[in-house]
Every structure is written in C-alpha cells, then in structure tokens.
C-alpha cells in the first residue's frame, strides 16, 4: 500500500483557548478537490484521511457530516482507498481533554456512527499516535490538558488506548472485516554514559506502553508498577488484557529524524538523529508484537540543495525493503503528508504561520522534488513487489465491492488474515 496523508491534527493550546487545525491552515477545506487531484497525480491509491473531529462531532448524538459526506463520496468516486484517521491529537471543546473518563465511551459511539454511515470504508486508524498524544498533552504540557506529571500521563494514555479499543469493537460490529492500521511512533533511547543506562532502560520500556495495552500484551514488571503507582487500577489493567484485538491490526509505525533520543545521566534527553534507523527499530517492535508492519509516516524538510527529502525517501524505502527481505511482513509505506505543514517546527505549540516544506506538494499545490521521486518510486516498484513478496496478502476489498451486510466470505478473510499471521510468527520463532 503506497500511501500519503492529509493531516487533520486539531490539538488545543493556551489552556484550551486556541485550536490548531492543520486542515484549515493548509487550505484543505477550500482546496480539497485539488488535494485529491494531487493524490492521483502521484499514483497513490491509499490516503490517510479523516473528518475534522471537532467540526464533525458537535455533542452527544449530534453530528455535522456535510463536509465528510462530500469528501468521502469523492474519494469513493475516484477509487482512492481511505485509511480513516478519526482522532488526531485533539477532541472537541465539549469533551474537554484526554483526562475526561467519559472520552472512551463517547468516542466509541462516534466511531460506530461513522462506520454506520460509511459502510464501504474498511481501513481505520481510530486514534493517531496514542503515545505521542499522551506525552505531549500530559507529560510535556504542550497540548490539550497541558499537564506535566506521571499521573496525568497515565490517565491520558489509558483513556486514549481504551477509546481506541472500544472504537475498534464498535466498528467491527458494523464491518466484520475492518482492518485497523495503528499509526504509532517508533522510539529508541540511547544512553549517553553508564550513569544514564538506568533511565534509558525505563524510557525504552515506556515507549511500548500504548501498544502493549492496545494489543493486550502484559507490560514489563517495572511498567506495571509505574502504571499502578500513577492511577491505573488492577481492574483497568486487566480490561486491556481481556480485550485483545490484535488479529484485526496492522502495526503502523512512524519514523522521523527525531525518533531516536540521547539520554544523559541527569535524565534529560536530546534528539540523537538517525542512529539505528527505521529497519532496526521496527524489528524490535515486530519481535514484540508479531503483527504485519506498515511504515505509516515519515518526511524531511526540503533543504537548500533541494534533494534532502529525496535522499531521505530513498533511505526509508531501502529500510522497508530490508524488512521485507529478512521476512518481516511489511505491507505499506507512507510519505506524510501530501502538502507542506504549518508550525510543526514548534510541534504545534505556537500559531506562527510558519510553513514547513515537508510535503509532496507545497501549499500552492505545486509538486516538490520528493513528490516527483515518490511518483517514480511507485511506478518502478508497484508491479515488482507482489511477485517478490514473502509477506501476507492483506484481505482488502475494493471500494466497489462494499456490502451492506458482511457475509461468510468476509469472516473467512478475517480468519485467514489472523491464521496467516500466526503461521508466519510460528515459522519465524522456529
């Protein structure tokens, strides 16, 4: 699945007084037809895309589907398969923030309503980057609740992951062959000195928390104590173990130059740049979870030479091919996002209007060098990979095949997906 995305981040800053809406500042609400033209110009068939949550979900059982109806009908007409991104770093004002214990139940209902309205949609990312959302909102104090303590972090994390799982349950009630592609950050912490090893080990356990809970995997003993010490009850923890839906999932992971960190003896961290790289870090995540992998986000600024992003694209693609060649089932790649972004140089903490040249197209919808390179990469590899693949065939139905009722064939496809995953995992363990 060659993909890109139209980012729908909507965090609040200034203690909830200011909303950051990437679709708005990037011009998508006015130029969405041009954006879909750009997707097709590259030759992309899969698009990470979703409704602007705060504009669509106006209250309990109150929705404004107008923009979503129009845009999703156009995606369907163009045969662009959406990977639907339903919650991207923020919630509507009436929810408050991720400290709200009602969020999981309310969000699951919203997702069920979406799946009911768009039965032809099969691929979902219910909540984008749960770990990063919890860290930036409740550990670093940057977004939404703007908290900076462990209890707030654990609260946000458990609510985000529970909401993600409950959303999957509601979507599966409407579409039994739905596939959930997590988009989660892939992190690694390097100890700067022997005195920093202990802290680095803790952080390297913590990076797995969102996916451990999401996939119903028992966390490491140190993390279990950490969760219970900071507000998670045994009953809440056991709920995650009892709701294991990984057989419906693809491990989508994101990798940027900032995903590896250097940890110092006093506990502070700085970006380490690319040390291990995407392939090695993804191997660590795959060995832990044993589900198919998709590279769901990467990008780099187009620098002064004009080829910096092109070289990064080639490097990330080489890492993806390496994963496939060593037998790790890898089913997709994503350059994120379609157009340039705004104010990510300050992690959306400030509204400065700074354009970040990260897209396949600039904000005038003119193709960048990396857009041309990605278009060529897709043309070169699209027909080669199926013949060379040792990985799973993901049971995705064409948009035109969407049934209103799921039949036995759908259920069999889902079972085959899980069975093949088990066979691959067993063979590699053996």
From TrEMBL:
Region (Disordered): 404-430
A Pfam family this chain is assigned to: Glyco_hydro_1
Coiled coil: none
Full protein name: Family 1 glycosylhydrolase
Species the sequence originates in: Sphingomonas hankyongi
